[in-house]
């Protein structure tokens, strides 16, 4: 069955080929199993009207993806797709599919083939929902129109801007998330029931033409280059080669399992804050270089207010734990 309501100037249907073969049809995914990994799916053809008596309506066919294999976007069961057929009188004509069809970004995770999928079309069954980019509590979660982006079904994306690359996970918070640390339900959008994640979002941001120095005064020149920011609650920098301790970083199911992740957070070495280490070493340098002993065999004299005594006092009282990061680990 071809779509109704889309006509050419000659009165024929714009979705129909010259031989009467419908070139574009709607379909519902019934299976995504392909033993040859060719990407083929099984689709049940849908008509546009409930009273449609076309013999092909509700027929199940096999369809090949129009997207190249370099992109992995496979529709879920019961999602909607568009079907394209080669122009031929052959009743066993090859068919290709494009999809899943999703009208609005908030439905990327689950677009019902009878509801959300077709809402932006003239034959949609309900009105479109609110535009997410216009919702204040969701602002920043979806790509701008000028961006090139690959969006995950729910909560991750890759965005290519003019001089910037973003890789994000957890860009939104949903009420049922384990990582939801919202203070109240009022933080969520009252229509879409999720919000931009400002507390636990993880991302890698690479920016070009960014200022990479901090001038000491207004006469200093500015220097520009690239800046890479890695942001997360916990950051692990891990190596396969000669790392200690060693971890299983190439689990074939998920690279790093949840159990191994807990082991990494417990056993990997905390990263050292260089400025704090330097601060402590400066105290050690002054204390060692200027210390004195009242008598041979006694510990260094640390009483009084001399530079050497104060340095030894500060060195002995220094909180060494502040040298180590609590959130960045290495092996």
Question: Could you please describe the fold and organization of this structure?
Answer:
By secondary structure, the protein is of the alpha+beta class. The chain folds into 3 domains: 24-118, OB fold (Dihydrolipoamide Acetyltransferase, E2P) (Beta Barrel), CATH 2.40.50; 135-231, no CATH class; 237-331, no CATH class. The protein has 3 helices and 15 strands. The chain has helices spanning 258-267, 274-290, 307-317; strands at residues 24-31, 41-46, 60-65, 80-85, 95-98, 148-151, 156-160, 164-169, 172-173, 195-196, 202-211, 224-231, 235-237, 269-272, 324-330. It has a 5-stranded mixed beta barrel. A 5-stranded antiparallel beta sheet has the order 6-7-8-11-12, with no helix packed on it. β7 and β8 form a beta hairpin. α2 (274-290) crosses α3. The radius of gyration is 31 Å and the shape is elongated. The model is unreliable at 1-15 and 48-53 (pLDDT under 50).
Task: Give a quick precis of the structure.
The protein has three helices and 15 strands. The protein is of the alpha+beta class and 331 residues long.
């Amino acid at each position: 069955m071809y779509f109704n309501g889309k006509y050419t100037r000659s009165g024929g249907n714009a979705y129909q080929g010259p031989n009467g073969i419908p070139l574009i049809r709607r379909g519902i995914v019934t299976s995504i199993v392909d033993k040859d990994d060719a990407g083929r799916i099984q689709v049940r053809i849908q008509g546009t009207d409930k009273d449609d008596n076309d013999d092909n309506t509700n027929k199940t066919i096999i369809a090949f993806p129009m997207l190249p294999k370099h992109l992995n976007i496979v529709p879920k069961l019961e999602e909607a797709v568009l079907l394209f057929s080669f122009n031929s009188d052959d009743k066993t004509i090859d068919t290709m599919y494009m999809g899943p069809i999703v009208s609005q970004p908030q439905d990327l995770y689950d677009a019902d083939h009878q509801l959300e999928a077709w809402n932006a079309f003239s034959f949609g069954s309900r009105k479109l929902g609110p535009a997410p980019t216009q919702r204040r509590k969701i602002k920043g979660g979806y790509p701008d129109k000028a961006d090139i982006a690959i969006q995950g079904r729910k909560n991750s994306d890759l965005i290519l801007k003019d001089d910037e690359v973003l890789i994000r996970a957890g860009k939104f918070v949903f009420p049922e998330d384990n990582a939801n640390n919202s203070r109240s339900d009022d933080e969520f959008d009252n229509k879409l029931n999720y919000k931009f994640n400002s507390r636990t979002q993880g991302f890698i941001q690479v920016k070009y033409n960014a200022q990479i120095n901090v001038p000491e005064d207004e006469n200093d020149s500015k220097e520009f280059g690239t800046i890479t920011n890695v942001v997360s609650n916990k950051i692990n920098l891990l190596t396969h080669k000669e790392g200690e301790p060693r971890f299983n970083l190439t689990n074939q199911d998920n690279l790093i399992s949840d159990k191994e992740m807990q082991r990494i957070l417990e056993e990997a070495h905390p990263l050292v804050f260089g400025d704090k280490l330097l601060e402590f070493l400066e105290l050690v340098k002054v204390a060692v270089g200027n210390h004195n002993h009242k008598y041979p065999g006694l510990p260094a004299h640390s009483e009084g207010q001399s530079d050497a005594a104060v340095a030894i006092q500060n060195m002995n009282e220094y909180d060494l734990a502040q040298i180590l990061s609590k959130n960045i680990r290495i092996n």
